[in-house]
């Protein structure tokens, strides 16, 4: 999960930067943007406001912030990159099996090409 923050409120922006510091990236690398007002951008927008339509309703606790951000991220249906799948992820055994098969195929391909050039 990669997040960019674009808030008018400096206090809210600093609060979000503090709580979400492990997820903050620049706009170009982000999966979505958190903002305190509707803005016209090309990325998905997670709105924080007093409105019932907001993904995160102000005021919020740290727990409510994390739950709201996670719920919004899951609603985007963005699949994690293969590098992000670690031992705690449910698809880790599949990732490991694929890595083993690719390594085995790489070895076999290397030896086939190597044998071909040795026969010349």
How is the secondary structure organized here?
Layout lengths: L2 E4 L3 H10 L12 E4 L9 E5 L6 E2 L4 H15 L15 H27 L2
Parallel strand pairs: 1-2, 2-3, 3-4
Describe the structure concisely.
With 120 residues, this protein is an alpha/beta fold. The protein contains 3 helices and 4 strands.
Description of the molecule:
By secondary structure, the chain is an alpha/beta fold. Helix content is 43%, strand content 12%. The chain is built from three helices and four strands, in the order βαβββαα. The chain has a four-stranded parallel β-sheet. Helix 1 (10-19) links the parallel strand 1 and strand 2. The longest helix is centred in the last third of the chain and has 27 residues, at 92-118. The protein is elongated. 10% of the residues are buried.
List keywords for this structure.
single chain; 120 residues; alpha/beta; 4-stranded parallel β-sheet; 3 helices
